[in-house]
Amino acid sequence: MTEHTYKQFDVELDEIRSHLLRMGGCVQNMITDAMQAVLTGNTDLIEKVRETEKEVNELEVLTDQEVQNLIVRRQPTAVDLRIALAVTKMLTDMERCGDEAEKIAKLANRIHDDAQRFVPELELQHMFRAVSEMLNDVMDSFARHDSVKAAAVVRHDKQVDKEWKAALRGLISYMIEDPRTISGAIELLFVARSLERIGDHCKNMAERVIFMVHGADVRHQGVKAAERLVAERTQAE
Questions:
Q1: Coiled-coil annotation: which residues (predicted)?
Q2: Relative to the CA of 161, which of 3, 11, 170, 215 has its CA 20 to 30 Å away?
């Protein structure tokens, strides 16, 4: 490549990174707005989530096309190729996080239309904070090429799984104690399930960041294996 071509390549790669981070910011807003809609019944927030979902979908299509064009025109190698490949996978997980946020917003409508509605905030607030932190951290680890933080996100998913089980137990208890809460509790179970899935998608993205930085695939190997690899590679560098 000529110097001019290298500069153009860097510009294109920076634009791809910027679009993925912008997409992450949109999804974070969707999750926050959707959960506030669950807690308050604010229909304006529900509509806002739907509008933001359109932007997320547009960014996914745009960024995916940009990655394809970059690979075809520039034929990147080594870490640059890994960045491009990681972004294509992360786009899918990010878009699915947005889908889950939209599901939560739709559930908010049904929850607050129910005459017997109730919202046990504690069971869901912990999960919401946990997955929001995961999404923030995975975006930060991507922006900074920080595999240590990415490994921490992989571990954090275990905590979200525990929160999901706690929410499940709590909501079942509500249904047993007061059958009038069954309808609302079932809707809240779906909300908790969507939050748990967002956590899973964040973990997937964190594993992609580790691949991007170190060229090692840690999927399906467990938290300890991911942490061990990151520690070994980081020390070696």
A1: 42-69
A2: 215
8, 146, 86, 198: CA torsion to nearest 10: -130
Q: Which amino acid is at 126?
A: H
- Tell me: the pLDDT tens digits for 35-71? 999 888 888 999 999 999 999 999 999 999 999 999 9
Is residue 234 within 8 A of residue 149, CB to CB? The reply is no
CA distance 52 to 162: 29
- Kindly tell me the burial class for residue 56, based on how many C-beta atoms sit within 10 Å of its own C-beta (0-12, 13-18, 19 or more): buried
166/206 Cα distance (integer angstroms): 24
Q: Tokens representing 231?
A: 């520690």
Distance, CA of 9 to CA of 116 (rounded, Å): 58
pTM above threshold 0.70: yes
**CATH code, domain carrying 69:** 1.20.58.220
Q: What is the DSSP letter of 85?
A: H
